Amino acid sequence: MDDEFLAAVKRAVLGWPGVETTRIEHGPGGGPVADYRVGRRQIGHIRHGNDGQADLLVPIEVRDALVRSGQATPHPAFPDGRTVASIPLRGPDDVPRGVAAFRADVVRLTAAPRRPPGSGSGDPSLAPARPAGVTGVTGS
């Protein structure tokens, strides 16, 4: 795995206001990961090593759309986990898609009002509206 591609995604993601990273030596799957957060909310992580994957925590409908479009796969360790989309970062053509996926997740998290735990009604009609244009991820 060429870490140059992972570093390009990392530079872009860390250039956005409020995004921070922590390196975890023994992350999911046992290898090192770079965990990305906006405040206390995780947006995803990049697995270093042989597979070079970005694993993003996204709503079910976004994950399903990414998988259907071929832009992501289910998480290899949790294929039935419906909120994790894995995006390969194995070459220069993967960098824009990886950056766009993280960006869409950051926009979604920063646009949604935060509610105290237990205060949600569970009614989907009361959920915050998704920002315009953040229905999936494109390679631009």
From TrEMBL:
It comes from uncultured Thermomicrobiales bacterium. The lineage of its organism: Bacteria, Pseudomonadati, Thermomicrobiota, Thermomicrobia, Thermomicrobiales. InterPro entries: Luciferase_dom. Residues 40-100 form the Luciferase domain. Pfam families: Luciferase (PF17648). Residues 71-95, 109-140 are annotated as: Disordered. This is Luciferase domain-containing protein.
